[in-house]
Specification:
The protein folds into two domains: 202 residues, Alpha-lytic protease prodomain-like (Up-down Bundle), CATH 1.20.1510; 68 residues, Cation efflux protein, cytoplasmic domain (Alpha-Beta Plaits). The longest helix is centred in the first third of the chain and has 33 residues. It is elongated. It is built from eight helices and three strands. The protein has a three-stranded mixed sheet, with helices on one face. It starts with 8 loop residues before the first helix and ends in an 11-residue tail after the last strand. With 298 residues, the chain is mostly helical.
Length: 298
């Protein structure tokens, strides 16, 4: 969920840019190795995990694009810059993962009907490398995951992948010891379940922000009450909160003040209050008591 933070923006941008590039490079290399191993050993678990990791590579690329677009300055035709693209990319990333789920489920069901030999030890070793790579990539995004929905998505995907790879390791070892082939496609189905579980909240939040809904963690009623409780404020109405991007929230509101001569003081207090609520961009319209507001139905 988007929040405003006072830490160094430049240092954070450099750190995230490096994390995205390193994460993409590591995961591209692993996808190639895992896919080749899956084909060579006939493992649905490895192929499913490789397909998921490939979708994560695309997701990381999309998140990197969103990260870069968010830094484009405003232009005459795009007065907020391209900040909203971060929300659209987050939504696209979520839908991409759901497509990957469908492919994995279909292939796993086919393997359940027609089991094929699997090299258990090789599967376990290959997935073991995945545990290390996915775990490390998740760690790269750990400190910034609460500051940006796209970064949070990258972290959740990588952390889920690490857990999925652990499951593939276990299935590979069990197949080697027991010879029970249906275990491999069962792990493929479990992979699909983990993906759905990890992507659901991301999809829900992305869709809400794309529709200009209130960002998660923001309570408009409580914010309106806090503004109304400020000294010199008599009432608040037409309050709207939405996301400019996956990292910035915006608010507009009409504020009735008892004394227009104190307007700057009241405005300063309200802006400070809103920053503490994670809203850095606020547009306030002030009115005097008894003023007939012409913005009806908002």
């Amino acid at each position: 969920m988007p929040h405003h933070h006072s830490r160094s923006v430049h240092a954070s941008a450099v750190s995230l840019n490096r994390a995205f590039r390193l994460g993409i490079a590591l995961n591209v290399a692993f996808v190639v190795v895992e896919f080749a191993a899956g084909v060579w050993y006939g493992s649905m678990g490895l192929l499913a995990d490789a397909g998921h990791n490939l979708s994560d590579v695309v997701g990381l690329l999309l998140a990197l694009v969103a990260f870069r677009l968010a830094q484009v300055p405003p232009r005459p035709r795009y007065t907020y810059g391209y900040k909203k693209s971060t929300v659209l990319i987050s939504l696209a990333n979520s839908l991409l993962l759901l497509v990957a789920v469908g492919v994995i489920v279909a292939e796993s069901i086919a393997r359940l009907r027609h089991p094929a030999p699997v090299g258990g030890a090789a599967v376990a070793w290959t997935a073991g490398v995945g545990v290390a790579i996915n775990g490390f990539t998740a760690w790269l995004f750990l400190k910034d995951k609460e500051h940006d929905l796209n970064v949070k998505g990258a972290y959740l995907h990588m952390a889920a992948d690490a857990l999925v790879s652990v499951g593939v390791v276990v299935s590979g070892l069990l197949i080697r010891w027991t010879g029970w082939l249906p275990l491999d496609p069962i792990v493929g189905l479990l992979v699909a379940g983990v993906i759905v579980a990890s992507v659901w909240s991301l999809l829900r939040d992305s869709l809400r922000l794309a529709l200009d809904g209130v960002p998660a963690g923001i309570d408009p009623v409580r914010i309106g009450e806090r503004i109304a409780a400020q000294e010199g404020v008599e009432a608040v109405h037409h309050l709207h909160v939405w996301a400019l991007s996956t990292t910035e929230n915006a608010l507009t509101a009409h504020v009735v003040v008892s004394d227009l001569s104190c307007l700057e003081t009241v405005k300063g207090r309200i802006k400070a209050l809103l920053r503490s609520e994670g809203i850095a961009h606020a547009t306030l319209e002030f009115e005097s008591p008894g003023c007939l507001c012409d913005s009806r139905g908002e």
